[in-house]
Amino acid sequence: MVDNQRAHKTKAGFTFQDLAAIILFIDNFDELKSIKAEGNHEDIDVELIDGSWIYAQAKMISDPINSTPKYRRRRMSESFTSLCNNLFQSTNPVSNIVYVSNCKDPVGEEETTTNSVYPIYPLRFDQLAEKTQSRIEKMLGKKIEKDYLRKENKTKEEVLNSLEKVFGIQIIPFDPRYSYDDKFHSVQNYVENFLINRNLMRNTSLSIMRNWHDLFRENSESYSKDKVLTKKDLLWVIVVIEFNQPFSTDTIASKLNIDSAIMDEMNDRFKEVFDYISERLEFCARIWADKEEYVEDSLMSSSSSIYDFINNSWQNYLKLLQVDNVSGEEQEALVKMVLYRILTKKSTIKNIMRTGNIDVD
Predict the structure, then answer these.
(1) Cβ-contact 270, 335 below 8 angstroms
(2) Distance from CA of residue 156 to its chain's centroid?
(3) What own/partner pairs with CB < 8 Å and gap ≥ 24 does 69-77 have?
(4) How far apart are alpha carbons 309 and 295 in whole angstroms?
């Protein structure tokens, strides 16, 4: 039983770390170059376009309501030491260091109703209560005097001033004891607001959040230290979900010379194929360019040539879209479905990627 409880806590801790990565991705979307969960320096490493970094420690408390202030402070103190080491010793320029907690009062200093409903929110150092600021400064303790002052050749006040400029706390309501919907509700709402503000797909926040979570989990378990996620990777999730929206297959199957029953069966394999195309955007750009060249050579109108292009060119892309354990007819259906979606959703793909200032031409 003890081992099972420990395993559950470990799994919940990794889940919280992945959710924290989603929040940091959204909060730094415009400036973000790459992000890695289970990073090379901290729990989450964020590289910004200007070359600076954000280092974050994400620490889940199993009982965020009833945990003692002493326990919360100990958890934060452990993370705080690591964050300060990266702040003062990293060879990379550091933009921010962030402590991410699922407890409304992670330092255990403020009298707050920790069981109340509250949104996700970040706090800069100067937004914390004076008692909390004092506690954080004390956490540095002898570390400032023995290590940082000697290496930085600065006064204690100068070091504290540097800390105050870059340190922040991110609160994410998450109680591992709750049901799935209650546990992820705040993060799902955060994703939904992001989609609305960016004029992206609405009413798909749960699916997008789940897929982002899986992507960060896969990334954190990667053995490659250089394997990071970019805006393109995370926005591609939205493209795939958009492409998997239901559509009428009967008319399309007829125009693509496919049995509609086979097309319906292949719908389940569509996401698998499309999601794992290597160099995804480059592949889309190639299809668009091939189609435009086909239109020019055949002197056909752009709209009427989609089906003609697919029916005459689909075999050119077989090697790029090869799938195991399917028949020849099924393979043909898959390839034609991918080409059809890429061509008919061209403007959608471009709009999604332009949200992240990603050129797709």
Answers:
(1) no
(2) 37
(3) 69/105, 69/107, 69/108, 69/109, 70/108, 71/108, 72/101, 72/103, 72/105, 72/106, 72/107, 72/108, 73/107, 73/108, 73/135, 73/139, 75/101, 75/106, 76/101, 76/106, 76/107, 76/139, 77/139
(4) 8
Coil vs helix vs strand at 168: strand
Q: Residue 303: pLDDT above 60?
A: no
Going by their DSSP bridges, the two strands 167-171 and 121-124 should be labelled as antiparallel
Is residue 353 predicted with pLDDT exceeding 70?
yes
Reported residue count of the chain is 361
pLDDT digits (tens, 9 = 90+) for 79-102: 888 898 888 888 899 999 999 999
Helix (H) or strand (E) holding 44: strand 44-48
Sheet holding 53-59, edge to edge: 32-37, 44-48, 53-59, 94-101, 167-171, 121-124
Rounded Cα distance between 21 and 215, Å, is 11
11-48 residue pLDDT tens: 565 789 999 999 999 999 999 999 999 999 999 999 99
Cβ–Cβ under 8 Å, residues 64 and 108: no
User: CA–CA distance from 189 to each of 35, 98, 125, 181 (Å)?
Assistant: 21, 21, 25, 11
pTM attached to this predicted model: 0.86
Pairing label, strands 53-59, 94-101: parallel
Rg of the chain, C-alpha, whole Å: 25
Check residue 325 and report its DSSP letter: T
Q: Which two tokens stand for residue 85?
A: 């080491």
Q: Compute the C-alpha angle 19/186/39, nearest 5°.
A: 15
> Helices (H), strands (E): how many in the chain?
14, 6
Calpha distance 168→72 (Å, rounded): 16
* C-alpha span between 349 and 235 (Å, rounded): 9
